[in-house]
Structure formats: structure tokens, C-alpha cells
Amino acid sequence: MPHSITITVDGLAEEVPQGLGLPQLIERHQAQHKDLIVEINGRFVHPKTYHEVELNQGDRVELIHPAFGG
Amino acid sequence: MPGRYTMQERLAGWGPQGQARLAGSTVVVLGMGGLGGAAAMLLSRAGVGRLRLVDPDRVALDNLHRQLLYDEADASQAAPKAQAAARHLGGINSEITLEAIAEEFQAGNGRELLEGADLALDCLDRPQPRFVLNELCVELGLPWVHAGVVAAQGQVLVLRPGLTPCLRCWFPEPGEPALTSAHDGILGPAAAMLASLQASEALKLLLGREESLLAGMLVARLWPPSFHEVRFNRGDQEPCPVCGY
Questions:
Q1: A68 and B127 in contact by Cβ < 8 A?
Q2: Threshold 0.90, pTM exceeds
């Protein structure tokens, strides 16, 4: 049984497996959209680097879908 | 007796000089829906000297819950939005110049629509023309303020070519949006809120108050309430193919 860590996603606490990658988190939240904006601990994460990011205990993640209506 | 602009001229760093700057400014408002109508109303009341109002659509009844400029008479006549907006704004401030252009902003007419502008407001209603605007503004060196709204949320971004990331920096591979007003609706107060934030950034740019501008993307949600600013970070990625930032 892998250890779990607690992170915050869009303001809500969430328990996830230790070592979870950002792409897997995005998938868990069904947020796989090209226009997704990801922020971790107040920093923008460039889409081309999602695969390099592993989540850590206490991370604050925002998965932001921009609004393009007017 | 206080004049039309007395109360805003009293704001720190504004004064008659700031007011004169606004009077000498031209702003192009692209899209005259929930965002554009409210933003144009605020800028006309503030005394921006020339507003070019661009929208190919006509007013419909289902616009009225969020599009503050229009009324039932406009909807019953299916009035062209650009012309109806100019008529209402002219009644609010007869000292400014209003140009109504009932055309769709696109690559073919974009340069002409932006001619002579000090600033553009992106109040468009879908992603694709926003990226056309982005490329034109980079080419022309024209500052612009992006805003978007769907459901109870949206974002505002100030774009200054050569000084800030462009829209493609934020969205390297634009695609179909996850949220659409056709599916998710639009909350009237959310459109008005985003338009107010957008108009506020526009006034700062016109007044030369760059130190007070948003530094990142302001993401705002009303229901439940949440406001935060995302700061751009390219990391070690290649420079943007559009702006080179």
C-alpha cells in the first residue's frame, strides 16, 4: 500500500498517493484541456513541464479553466 | 459647482492632467456584449475621448440579464449592438466621440479596426479571434486588456507587447475551451465584475499608472467567491513563437 500525502486542490484538501505526477492529478480531476492553467503554490506551471512535476505534501494546486465568453 | 469629472479628478495621481489624457485617448472595444457594454459604459463615463465599438451582432432578449447597455426596445427591434451601444453611451456622455462598427473582428479587418488606437479591450466571445488580436497587437506594439467570462468566473490580463507575456505565452496550444457560455451560462454580476476590472486596468494604462497594473492573470470567481492572481513563469522553456518573450 503506497503512502499517501495531503494536498489542496482548488481550495479543498485531497489525499493522493505519494509520488503522484501532475498529469495524473489532472486526469483524476478530468481537467485535460489544452487551455488549462495550473498553478502550484502560487506559481504558474508551464504546460510543457507538466510531466516533470511530482506533487509533494502540502502543495496547493489550482486547476483553472479560463473563461473565453464575453 | 462640481463638474462632470470632479470626483474622479480628486483621486490620487489623477487631476485635470489625467483627465486631459483620457480626453485625448482612443480605445477600441472589441465585442459589445456583457463585458464590452459594461466596460464601454465605464470608460465613456470616465471621459475617454474616443471609443470605437465593434460588434456584428444584434440585441436579443436573452442578452438583457447581463448586457447592461441594452433594453427591451433594443431587443424587440433586434438593434445592431454597436449602434445601440453608441446611442445609449451618447446619452451618458455627449462630450466624447463614439464610432459604431457592426463588423466581426478578424484578421482581414483587424489592422483597420485598431488604427489610431491607444488601447484595445478584448471583450470577444470566443478564443480564436482573441489570438488574432494577440498577434496583431504584438505586431503593432499595441497594449490591450483581455477579459473573459463564463458561468460565475473569468479572468483579466493586461498585455503590453515587449513588456509582458502575450496570450500565446499563457496558452501555448489554444484549443476548444472547457467552459462555454452556451453550455455553462453566464452570471450577470460576473460579467459586470470582470468588465469593471478590465475597465480599471484600461484607465491605469491610459493614465500612465503602470506601477498599479495587474502583474499576472487575475482569476475571479463569484460563486463561491475567490480571487487570485497567477504569476507567469516560463521556466526554461523556449521563448514564445509569437512575441519572443
A1: yes
A2: yes
